[in-house]
């Protein structure tokens, strides 16, 4: 009994928590081995990782060949032959664009980053100047891409690779949101002609596969045009993709509009706001905020759908990859080429989805500040 | 609604006449619209600089050289096999040079004209040399990799039945998959068109350990195609091909064409190069049309070697595509 120490009330020192409740062991026990089932799952997952990851890593990195003239450079290597990607890097990104003019595409890329900044990050510095820049950007980008006015003209047939995917994706995204909003508002309009037209458009477009639109645009259109009138193929694809995507966007926005309680509409009217004022200041900001995930989902789908233009012979990233696979010098390296194209698509789409999460978070925070 | 329908039908009916002047249109436009494959090793694919090259591409370059003296005055339109004829009919392209097999149905009912054959392909077999097989007739009981749903599969069955042999198919979806199966030795032989076999062969770890058997069991004559209804354009395309073949027959190459033009005494060569006679004006061009073709793209043999022959990774033998005096069946009608 003598070794039992006693303390006066209030003088007991703080003891460390029991060793199996803190630290690595406790974390492991709580998160990975909390019961028999979880322990089994943990071990199974660990085994799976051990089986899968090292061979994948060695294929991707350690045994891979990163440079070379042709596929003979990869002879004997156990891993991926990334040499094909490095050798055809320019085509993945610039397509068939004349190689001495690719600086123009680089300018377009950088310009795009600047142009989207004010819309994506409202807190960015120099916002006003950037907004003006982004309004002028489409014309600037078109001039740089197509040439003319002291730049060497480049026919749209030569645009390709990631550039073309971006051109179609960004144009589709930038044009389909406003169009979709107008269509959604039109569908709810009290003017029967407007609403019927919008409903007819939306339902027709949603009822037909995008591939059929593209196919019609590329092959059938010429039969209905007068002799000698040639529409640019890329322009046709752009119009098809944009119209298609705007119909889907309209339905997403309509969902947002329906989520707004009628009290908001009535309040706006009571304040004497006109229809457009109330939409601009009251309804749309709330409606769009609720459907951000749906909108971004549409954007991502649209970006991936751009690969369908391959069907009409445009060389977007995926079709370019297909063409590279057929190069006689690099025969039989389809896995590497497609994996690389997949990674590029994934990076873009994943960035969009992360951005949308961040945007939702920051808008929520704003709401809470306001409340 | 009805009036609209009638208008469309009327427009479609007048279409044949409306396209009559392809050569004038091409001249006015300043370049040729050429439909090619979206990518087929050796026949049409974009190279490292992003320029189109290949056996089929060179035909369009030859045609452009004949018209414009500039083989680069071509805009390429990559076409899938489903849309190639529609693109030709709707005048999106002036000529289709896309490894297209000449068949009766296509020639007669699709509204297009085949102008000749520039590559005689056919279905063949590839086997590992280790099997010590030297003829397809020794393949009795073999396991054979074949792509499903193709004429290839039917030809295979016909060939084996005709020769009273049995076989086992390993049915596969894509060319890439066939390659893998063949490499993994899940089949003894691999069958598809000979040009395709050659393309696969060079990608195998040890190309020399595999041979393509001499038997060709089907006919796949590939050639350029033009729209029906413009005889002048059809003739021009046809004789561009004939000029390429004739030039090889007469020994005219891109290297010696200038000397030949100065010094040749052979009247056939003189006619070909426009020194004598007036072949060009009958085609709507000037006398030096064929000279321009040879100077810019070389003759048929040069085009073949450079893209798919021994000078290329595919290293296809000339075989059937040799000149008639060399054991092949290339035989251009006389250019006179």
Shape-level CATH architecture of the largest domain in chain B: 3-Layer(aba) Sandwich
Whole-number average pLDDT of chain A? 86
Helix and strand succession of chain A?
Answer: HHHHHHHHHHHHHEHH
Q: Write down the Rg of chain B.
A: 22 Å
Helical content band of chain A: 55-70%
CATH superfamily of the largest domain in chain A: MetI-like
Estimate the strand proportion of chain A: under 5%
Topology summary:
The complex is a heterodimer of chains A (371) and B (336).
Chain A: H1 23-31, H2 36-62, H3 83-87, H4 89-94, H5 102-120, H6 127-146, H7 161-187, H8 192-206, H9 210-224, H10 233-259, H11 262-270, H12 275-290, H13 292-305, E1 315-316, H14 317-325, H15 334-370
Chain B: H1 2-18, H2 22-29, E1 32-37, E2 45-46, E3 52-53, H3 55-68, E4 74-79, H4 84-89, E5 95-101, H5 104-109, E6 112-114, E7 119-121, E8 123-128, E9 142-147, H6 151-162, E10 167-172, H7 175-183, E11 189-193, H8 194-201, E12 210-212, E13 220-227, H9 231-249, H10 257-263, H11 267-272, H12 279-282, H13 289-297, H14 300-307
Parallel strand pairs in B: 1-4, 1-5, 9-10, 9-11
Antiparallel strand pairs in B: 2-3, 5-13, 6-13, 7-13, 8-11, 8-12
